[in-house]
Specification:
heterodimer, A: alpha/beta, B: alpha+beta, Beta-Lactamase, five-stranded antiparallel β-sheet
């Protein structure tokens, strides 16, 4: 999943990025509202973390502009202001959830997962596809009760495909949702990873879960 | 009201008793004269008593429904004569009647007033030695008088009660009417609480006598409200400023602990935490300074201060920073300038200003400090070749937490309190502070302090 952070406190933005990347998210950071708006409009992201107090153009305005541009990406508001008024106007302006500073990183992760779930049919943190079980919270992957070890990138790819299971995902889409903007978009990388994942979760099993849709992309389904 | 009730009651009691006394005195004196009159009709002849009671005198005592009674006894109680009106009854006699005395006693259920008159001198030829004489008992039915007194008492009581009720309810209604506006005022005031300071008394609806009061209440609450708002704003700003470094500390430590890491990573995390903690400490320091300065009871230790010395000291404190940034500081103040001030506060003032001049400067830039006399003021000018302040921000720079641009002051470690503190200090010294600036060229800060007159 790809996350966009719009936060002007560099020290905070950077540590959150580091923490999220360790959780297998691809993270882009914008240090001011204008840049954040630009990136929201031009780069695909699965979730936007937006600080309300931004210099020059304030967070609320950015939020409204994002929504006005038709971007439906879930937005998690970060705010140091914790009055009810602020929360209400943030939520009414288009945010999907809020977190007040200072917050526990664990809570940030959990709320992010909840927001990411909303966009798919997945409602619990455990996804089951046939006999493949993926726990989004703990990153555990099992098939036929056997634990499967995946690297960070492999897991990220599998998770994204699982959340969007039964949908065909193009290579481009997969690349865009798994790498931040600094990545050189070489679509071949995805093929390599798909292969690796296939080796780990499909090889040796009668039912194949990962399918190639020629000319379009890949799909994860029973 | 209780007091007037008490007074009226006492008055009533006094009236009752005075009338009662009059009535009884009249009865008593009439009884006594009757007893004496009877005495004159008795004469003694050694051991023989002669009673010359004629019908004319006795008619009163002989009426069937007579109200008058008499009984004549010897000292030992032996009855010698009694009136026809007594019929078979007797007037009570205890044998201890040593003096003439009056009593009220019941006689066959009727209240009578009785006098036991000790007669010896009054009786003709009565032996003057002790032991010879008579007790003449005269009594009068005083039922009527008692009824009168009772009626009087009742009327008096009822009148008092009536007066009390009338005056009480009248007074009550009047005071209620007069106090209604006061009640309204206190109701409005009751609504005012810490969370609701915007209620005000409606001066128009208040009767004229109370308008001044209502008005001054409103003014007081205006002041209170703005004080509370300033306080609230301050607290909100402060906690807000602290939340960001706090978030960094929290996230850094949480993330660092999430998995095993290399020592280098832990060091990086700890460094970031330390930086954030120091920033918080700075903020807290500045906030405390500001809070202290803005209370009304700040006590500055005013002494004669050599301004040049203070400036030199500030520059000395900041020379490491200046060196680090390649900034040259020039001081031109050849005359000794003496002002009346608090050394520590002035040091803080100039350190803040010169610090700004250094921080918002360009590498290799200059800071020129000059001190001159202008009428009764000593003017210190701090001129820098820095990035300047946009005109739209110039009047706001002294506001708390105001930063021209968050990003530029963040790097310099500023939180927008420095100039507010400077402003407070200058105000406390009875001076003024002015700022002129041009973006890209630099800023000039002029501090006006009252000169001490001495030392040129």
């Amino acid at each position: 999943m790809r996350i966009l952070i719009i936060e002007d406190e560099k020290s905070l933005a950077d540590i959150i990025k580091k923490g999220l990347e360790e959780e297998r998210y691809a993270v882009d950071v914008a240090y001011n509202g204008e840049e954040g708006l630009f990136m929201a409009e031009n780069e695909p992201s699965d979730l936007i973390i937006l600080d309300i107090m931004l210099p020059v153009i304030d967070g609320m305005t950015i939020l409204k502009k994002i929504r006005k541009a038709g971007i439906k990406t879930p937005v998690l508001m970060l705010t140091a202001k914790d009055t009810i008024m602020d929360k209400v106007s943030g939520l009414d302006s288009g945010a999907d959830d809020y977190l007040t500073k200072p917050f526990a990183f664990e809570e940030l992760l959990a709320r992010m997962r909840a927001l990411l779930r909303r966009n798919s049919e997945v409602k619990a943190s455990i996804i089951t596809i046939g006999d493949l079980i993926i726990d989004i919270a703990t990153h555990e992957v099992k098939r036929e009760e056997k634990n499967i070890l995946l690297s960070a990138r492999e897991y990220a790819l599998l998770e994204y495909m699982a959340i969007n299971r039964n949908k065909v995902l193009s290579r481009t889409a997969l690349t865009e949702h798994l790498y931040d903007q600094d990545f050189d978009l070489d679509s071949n990388v995805i093929d390599v990873f798909i292969n690796r994942i296939r080796n780990k979760i499909d090889r040796g099993y009668d039912t194949k879960l990962i399918h190639t849709v020629r000319g379009t992309g890949y799909i994860l389904k029973v | 009201m209780a007091v007037s009730f008490l007074i009226l009651s006492v008055l009533g009691v006094l009236l009752y008793f005075s009338l009662s006394k009059i009535v009884y005195n009249a009865i008593d004196s009439s009884l006594l004269s009757r007893a004496k009159a009877l005495a004159t009709l008795i004469s003694s002849d050694n051991s023989e008593m002669e009673f010359e009671f004629s019908d004319e005198i006795m008619w009163e005592y002989n009426l069937s429904k007579s109200k008058s009674f008499f009984q004549i006894r010897r000292f030992d109680g032996f009855t010698l004569e009694k009136s026809a009106s007594l019929k078979d009854s007797e007037l009570p006699f205890s044998g201890k009647e040593n003096q003439t005395e009056f009593k009220t006693i019941p006689l066959n259920g009727i209240p009578v007033r009785l006098v036991n008159f000790r007669a010896s001198d009054e009786i003709e030829n009565m032996a003057k030695d002790r032991g010879h004489g008579l007790i003449i008992q005269c009594a009068e039915n005083i039922q009527n008088q008692i009824n009168l007194l009772n009626r009087y008492r009742l009327v008096l009581s009822l009148s008092i009660l009536f007066i009390m009720i009338i005056s009480a309810s009248g007074g009550f209604m009047i005071s209620r009417k007069a106090l209604a506006p006061v009640k309204n005022i206190s109701k409005t005031i009751d609504k005012i609480s810490e969370s609701n300071l915007s209620e005000r008394i409606n001066v128009e609806d208040t009767p004229e006598e109370l308008r001044i009061l209502a008005s001054s209440f409103n003014h007081t609450f205006d002041r209170l409200e703005s004080a509370f708002n300033r306080q609230r704003q301050f607290t909100a700003d402060a906690s807000h400023e602290l939340k960001t470094p706090l978030s960094v500390i929290l996230s850094q430590s949480e993330i660092a602990l999430r998995k095993n890491r290399a020592a280098e990573e832990y060091r990086d995390a700890l460094t970031a935490i330390t930086e954030a903690a120091m920033m918080m400490s700075q903020i807290v320091q500045k906030l405390l300074t500001l809070a202290r300065l803005s209370t009304d009871k700040v006590e500055l230790k005013m002494k004669d201060i050599n301004l040049n010395e203070v400036i030199r000291e500030s520059v000395k404190l900041l020379s490491p920073l200046a060196e680090q940034r390649g900034i040259i500081i020039n001081i031109s103040a050849d005359k000794q300038s003496v002002i009346s001030g608090d050394k520590i506060a002035l040091l803080e003032l100039f350190t803040n200003l010169i610090d700004n001049a250094i921080k918002y400067n360009v590498p290799g830039g200059k800071v020129d400090i000059s001190v001159r006399k202008e009428t009764c003021f000593i003017v210190t000018e701090i001129r820098d070749t820095g990035i300047g302040i946009p005109e739209s921000d110039l009047d706001k720079v002294f506001d708390r937490f105001y930063r021209v641009d968050k990003s530029r002051s963040k790097e310099s470690g500023g939180i927008g309190l420095g100039l507010s503190i400077c402003n407070e200090i200058v105000k406390l010294h009875g001076g003024r502070i002015k700022i002129k600036s041009k973006v890209g060229e630099g800023t000039v800060v002029s501090v006006y302090l009252k000169g001490n007159g001495s030392g040129t």
